[in-house]
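Same chain as my last thread, 111 residues:
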Amino acid sequence: MAHVHQLPPGGWPFDDPENVASFTCRHVLEGEPVREVSHDDDDGAWQILCGEAHEDDDIRLVCLGCLVERDPGLVVLADLPYGWGAYRESADSPWVRAINEEEDEKPEDGA
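reply #2:
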């Protein structure tokens, strides 16, 4: 269902459209501050999270525009390259950008 976002002034800064599906956690949707953002290398997906550990059932799929509407400070990360992440201690802390670490590859045959 299409819907309109109340976005910060200056226009939409992301290359992805406002309605691109993004991963978040129920904690962010319940009001926890965003403290971790990842722009995945393999598929360009955005992960916008609270920075705490999650169970599978904590993850939600939400449009990027809704997350930016919730936290307009995310616009400073619009140019975050694929394969990079950004982290901050609190909602008032500056973002620190870094290349995402590769997850350990698991053997295919369990060997």
